[in-house]
From TrEMBL:
Protein name, entry field: NlpC/P60 domain-containing protein
NlpC/P60 domain residues: 237-352
InterPro entries assigned: NLP_P60_dom (IPR000064), Papain-like_cys_pep_sf (IPR038765), PG_Endopeptidase_C40 (IPR051794)
Organism: Streptomyces cahuitamycinicus
SUPFAM superfamilies membership: Cysteine proteinases
Length: 352
């Protein structure tokens, strides 16, 4: 008779101890932040919130300028594509007219008892292949030969236009993908800024808003009444004066990323709109605008000069004199007068 071993008793106490140890280790890891998600974020002071929000706004503005640049390139690619399509359509109309004329001659020849090889081109489903394979040039009359050569040339031109249009379409799709990416970055950073601001109580938010607008109200109201005329008289010319005047008229307009007026602006959009009103065409982005004129030193600044900020040239304003500018700051503040020292100064350009 086979011997049977008595099954080993599992220690319930040992399993419980191991489970408890595992839970304890997991809790310790969470408490110390080893997993990167468990510990609570420290409470930020209002000053720290403001610093983080300002950084997010600046990063959003970098993304906004990239968005503006991609949009400008997408619009240019779209216009080039439209022009190529229009050219191709016009050439196809001329080609059809030429083939119709050849077809009329072919019909007359056929009724007369024969179809000249040159005339077969007009009736071919694949005229390009026919031209490559047929040996009709020696047999075609000089007039017909010239007509067929013209058809062949038009076919080649249309194919070239279609190839160029395909390249532009590919470029347009790429630019649209860039726009989508930059838009996602902008909305994400602005959303993070709103979340941070929501941590502040109503009183702290109102105090922060007051501190942001205090400089604008204390100098802006006075400047609106007194400075436009004096700034315009000191400007480098009539167009610079007109741009400064336009900027003063837009004080208080909201900041909206990607906007170029007339009722809302981002920073480069305000500059572009002001000079457009003065009859000067400027590029869309800050990093293009800084190269649109003659660089001037800070000591040489005159009203109407463009002033740029941050190492990446991601912000721009219009100088109005006395160390101040008009600019569209960010979503937290409208178009306003501000000191140049409000942000890290990067350089200046005189466009007229």
């Amino acid at each position: 008779m086979a011997a049977h071993r008595k099954p080993r008793q599992r220690s319930t106490g040992g399993g419980t101890a191991r489970t408890a140890a595992t839970i304890a280790l997991a809790s310790a890891a969470t408490a110390t932040g080893f997993d990167g998600t468990g510990h609570a974020e420290p409470q930020l002071t209002p000053g720290q919130v403001k610093a983080k929000v300002d950084k997010l706004y600046q990063e959003a503005e970098v993304a906004t300028e990239k968005y503006n640049g991609a949009k400008e390139k997408a619009e240019a690619a779209g216009q080039r594509l439209k022009n190529l399509q229009d050219q191709a359509a016009r050439k196809e109309e001329r080609l059809n007219s030429a083939r119709d004329a050849l077809g009329s001659v072919a019909a007359a020849q056929y009724r007369a008892g024969g179809l000249d090889p040159a005339m077969q081109l007009a009736l071919s489903d694949d005229p390009d292949r026919y031209l490559d394979n047929a040996e009709f040039v020696e047999r075609a009359g000089s007039r017909q030969n010239a007509a067929v050569a013209g058809v062949r040339k038009q076919l080649r031109e249309i194919e070239q236009l279609r190839g160029a249009a395909h390249i532009e379409l590919t470029s347009l799709k790429s630019r649209r993908a860039e726009l989508k990416q930059h838009k996602k970055s902008i909305t994400g950073k602005l959303g993070s800024a709103r979340q941070l601001l929501s941590r502040l109580g109503p009183q702290e938010r109102s105090l922060q808003g007051a501190s942001q607008d205090r400089g604008s109200r204390s100098t802006g109201a006075r400047d609106t009444l007194a400075a436009p005329g004096s700034a315009s008289s000191q400007a480098t010319g009539a167009r610079a004066a007109a741009a400064v005047s336009y900027a003063y008229q837009k004080l208080g307009s909201p900041y909206v990323w990607g906007a170029t007026g007339p009722n809302a602006f981002d920073c480069s959009g305000l500059v572009q709109a002001a000079y457009r009103a003065a009859g000067v065409s400027l590029p869309r982005t800050t990093y293009s605008q800084i190269a649109a004129g003659r660089r001037v030193s800070r000591s040489e600044l005159l009203p109407g000069d463009l002033v740029f900020f941050y190492a990446g040239i991601s912000h721009v304003g219009i100088y109005v004199g006395n160390g101040r500018m008009i600019h569209a700051p960010n979503p937290s503040a409208p178009v306003r007068v501000a000191p140049l020292d409000e942000m890290p100064y990067a350089g200046a350009t005189r466009v007229v």
